[in-house]
Specification:
mainly alpha; 5 helices; 0% strand
């Protein structure tokens, strides 16, 4: 995989993940309302999603350097583990004012959607 191709795909992954999560947030706001729940804002969702997606891109680039032809397989393993571990942060979010089970479920869904977009957009499925 060429460096420029990875950067191009990475940029698309970051933008796509942000759009997917902002749309998910919009739907959740219509259904559940914000109710003073701080994570349910466009800025926090866009920033957290962007940081997570860029982090995934950095890990993917590292896997390409370290693992060569096995990079996609290793990245997928690392990304899935990271996505599952990211759900631990929902325990902290549960202490925020306005936190409800449905709102926390939406946050968890957004974590998993970000992972799906990052993995789906970066992995060359012919090499997995």
């Amino acid at each position: 995989m060429q460096h420029n191709s990875t950067i191009r795909r990475g940029a698309m992954v970051v933008v796509t993940a942000i759009v997917v999560n902002v749309v998910t947030l919009a739907i959740a706001l219509i259904i559940f309302g914000a109710g003073g729940f701080d994570p349910f804002g466009v800025a926090p969702v866009a920033i957290a999603t962007g940081v997570g997606a860029v982090g995934g891109l950095v890990v993917y680039a590292g896997c390409q350097r370290l693992f060569g032809s096995a990079a996609d397989r290793w990245f997928m393993i690392i990304a899935v583990v990271a996505a599952v571990l990211s759900l631990i942060t929902l325990q902290q979010a549960a202490t925020f004012p306005g936190a409800t089970t449905p709102r926390l479920a939406v946050l968890g869904l957004m974590h998993l959607l970000t992972a799906a977009v990052v993995i789906g957009g970066l992995v060359d499925w012919e090499h997995v």
